[in-house]
Amino acid sequence: MPELSAIGRWLVIAGVALAVIGGLVWLAGRIPGLKSIPGTLQVNLGGITCVFPILTMIVLSVLLTILLNVLVRLLR
C-alpha distances in angstroms, 68 versus 24, 41, 44, 64? Predict the structure, then answer.
C-alpha cells in the first residue's frame, strides 16, 4: 500500500495540472475567431445551442497521444 504522502503529492500535482489546463481553456475562449474553426458543427434548437468541435477534438486527440507516447518512452 502506497504511503499517504505519495498519494497526497500526486493529488496536488493533478490539481495544479487541472487548474493550469482550465486556465488555458478559459483564455482560449477569449480568442476572437476561435468559434469559427472549420470542422465545428453548431446545432441551434430553439433557445439551446450545442457546439461540437469535431476536427479540434481529433487534432487534440492525436497530439495528446503523441505527447503521452513520448513521455512514456522517456520515463521507461
Answer: 19, 28, 36, 6
Q: What range does the domain containing 10 cover?
A: 1-31
Domain match, 40 and 74 both: yes
- CA 61 to CA 64: how far, in whole Å? 5
Looking at 1-76, list the stretches that DSSP marks H as alpha helix, in order from N- to C-terminal side.
4-28, 54-75
pTM of the model: 0.52
Residues 56 and 25 in one domain: no
Please compute the mean of the pLDDT values over residues 3-15 and round it to a whole number: 91
- Cell numbers for 62: 492525436
